[in-house]
Amino acid sequence: MNVYLDPTQPIECRIEDLLGRMTVAEKAGLMFHPTTQPGGDSLSDADALREAQLNAVDRGISHFNVLGGGDSAGVATWHNTLQDFAGSTRLGIPITLSSDPRHGFRSNPFTGQSLESLSRWPETTGIAAIAGTDVAREYAEIVRQEFLAMGIRVYLGPMADIFTEPRWSRGFGTFGEDPARVAELTVAFIEGLRGGRTLGPDSVAAVVKHFPGGGPQLRGDDAHDPRYPEQVYPGGMQELHIEPFEKAFAAGATQVMTYYGKPVSTEWDEVGFAFNAPVVRDILRKRLHFDGVVVTDWNLLEGEQMGDLTFGPNGWGLEHLTPVERARIAIEVGVDQFGGDRNPALIEELVDSGAVTEKRIDQSVRRLLREKFQLGLFENRHVDVARARTTCGSPSYSQKGVAAQSASLVLLSDEAGTLPAGATVFIDGIQDPSLLPTTPNIEDADAIIVRLEAPFEPGRGSVVAEYFHGGSLAFPSNTLDKLRHYATQAPLYVSVFLERPAIVGPLLDLGATVIGEFGASDTVVINAFEGTIPLSGTLPFDIPASMEAVEKSREDVPFDTKEPLFRAGFGIARADKTPHMTAQA
Q1: 274 DSSP 8-state letter
Q2: Would you state the torsion angle of the CA atoms of residues 312, 315, 317, 320, taken in this order, to the nearest 10 degrees?
Q3: What are phi and psi of 450, to 5 degrees?
Q4: Helix %, strand %, coil % for the chain, to 5?
Q5: Is the pTM of this model over 0.85?
Q6: How confident is residue 455, by pLDDT bands cut at 50, 70 and 90?
Q7: The predicted structure's pLDDT at residue 169
Q8: N- to C-terminal Cα separation, the chain
Q9: What is the pLDDT of residues 463-522, one digit of tens each?
Q10: What is the helix (H) or strand (E) element at residue 364, kind and residue range?
């Protein structure tokens, strides 16, 4: 009798029955979590199927992070295809499909690709700009429903990192700069994904990341880039960055991801966190008693081709070691699964050589199987593609996403007031000119609307850097000169996508109405300028007064820039222009 296939049996019995049937090679397959992609622009259908068979059947891998997909139905179809491959293997262990965030406006092949067929929400900092935790929980509930419809059962997030370094290129994926706010929103999001008191067949599992907190990147340059591996703590705030993870574990988080960075000038080892015994073994496993799945960030063992870029290996501090040596160290400190990598033979080699015991491998495999059983994957292997089409991006979900976009907008200055009804507008950065009366001639305009990106320094010398916007937070002189000219022509309305805390002081000197946004459609931004929606969002981080203040601040200390222009929690209520504070004062 195959006890592991009997849903009436206790999960622990099913785990032990399946574990006892598995070879070392089959166990090794569970310990890898690479990407998968259906056929499309960059991969033919035939090549995608060959790659899927190689990984799911020949290598026995059963955890995949899905990229691309085209639309929701495409992802659901690909999920079913992968399940068919998995079902053809000796034990038929089902696939666990994961994804990075998909609901925002920004796409990055390394951190999350937006899918337009889903409801559209502001980036995570925008959720933090909305008072309370209800919207965060509702957002996660909708992510859960749309992911379930596509067959995605693991969300690679939320980020419990604290946005303490204003230049950090990944800060917009966090819940902001206030540690307590980050913690409470992380908990709310995990609860929304889970959909109940415990993980079950209607849940999406959260992978809270990036332990022990990825915010303190040296000068804000992200450790995805091999030139910038250092994570620093000049303020000695290591414990502060761990606190949101403690709250997440107390709330029932079952998975955690370590970050790439290697800590410098601390009591910890100067190696990437996945290999860091004081961090993973001593803090995560022993002190915090975390017994869930620990997965590494992507491609720490071997490199992978992404178009013209070879990404990885990203084993900072251990670059001189072989992949199998890096794998041994990670397993020894307490890692269960290798994100991005796809070579189970490395684990077989470790066991065959005696470098790692099969008993230690069984610890990780138990954790990984437990989650598959808890999620009901053995009983629910396929999804209804038609349901994916109707559930994902449904009118009710989309309306809630638009409401969140609106609620997240932060009014920083209202000098120009609301846009006059029927005004003819000169636009710069608006993608759809049909949304309001426009003119191509600035001299004929009654008003000017400009949508800006937060400043960054392009062309910083690598393909990776093009996707991770770093460098100065100050607007370049040519942008400011253009805006000054606009301000002499007509009332000026400016929105800034606050991917990072832009130095907006020069914009306020223009007598403009200025809105900070975190991902919003043209329609939402125009409605805000027209005054047809209320504005109640508040900043989830400080806005620095100058780059000098940023450069003198400490990467690991929240609210550390001197005399910021705006404090976290600032926002002008549209009705009376009264600043209202809900966070750091």
Answers
A1: G
A2: -70
A3: -130, 130
A4: 40, 15, 50
A5: yes
A6: very high
A7: 94
A8: 64
A9: 777 888 999 999 999 999 999 999 999 999 999 999 999 999 999 999 999 999 999 999
A10: helix 358-374
**Cα separation, 521 vs 501, whole angstroms:** 20
Name the amino acid, one letter, at 508. L
Please give the mean pLDDT across all residues of the chain.
95
Given a contact cutoff of 8 angstroms between Cβ atoms, the answer to whether 327 and 345 are in contact is: no
Cβ proximity of 151 and 544 under 8 Å: no
Taking the CA atoms of residue 173, residue 175, residue 178 and residue 183 in that order, the dihedral angle to the nearest 10 degrees is -120
Question: Helix (H, G, I), strand (E, B), or coil: what is residue 144?
Answer: helix
Q: Rounded to an integer, what is the distance from CA 255 to the centroid of its chain?
A: 15
Alpha carbon of 44 to those of 34, 308, 397: distances in Å?
19, 17, 32
Report residue 577's pLDDT band, with 50, 70 and 90 as the boundaries. very low
Question: Is-catalytic flag, 297?
Answer: yes
Backbone angles phi, psi at 32, to 5 degrees: -125, 145
Q: Which of 297, 336, 542, 560 is catalytic?
A: 297
- What is the 3-state secondary structure of 210-235? EECCCCCEHHHCCCCCCCCCEEECCC
Phi/psi at 194 (nearest 5 deg)? -70, -40
Measure the CA–CA gap between 455 and 191, rounded to whole angstroms.
Answer: 35
- Tokens 């899927």 identify what position? 52
pLDDT level of residue 177 (50, 70, 90 thresholds):
very high
Which of 538, 540, 546 has the alpha carbon at shortest distance from 562? 546
Residue 295: CA count within 13 A, CB half-sphere: 31
- The residue-averaged pLDDT of 32-58 equals 93
The predicted pLDDT at position 1 comes to 63
User: CA-CA distance, 240 to 243, in Å (whole number)?
Assistant: 5
Q: How far apart are CA 201 and CA 151, in angstroms?
A: 11
Contacting residues for 315 by C-beta, under 8 A, at least 6 apart:
271, 272, 274, 275, 300, 301, 321, 326
Neighbours of 438 (CB within 10 A): 16
DSSP result, 67-103: ---SSHHHHHHHHHHHHHHHHTSSS-PPPEEEE---S
Enumerate residues 6+ apart whose C-beta is below 8 A from 166.
Answer: 220, 473, 500, 501, 541, 542, 544, 550, 553, 561
Helix (H, G, I), strand (E, B) or coil at 52: helix
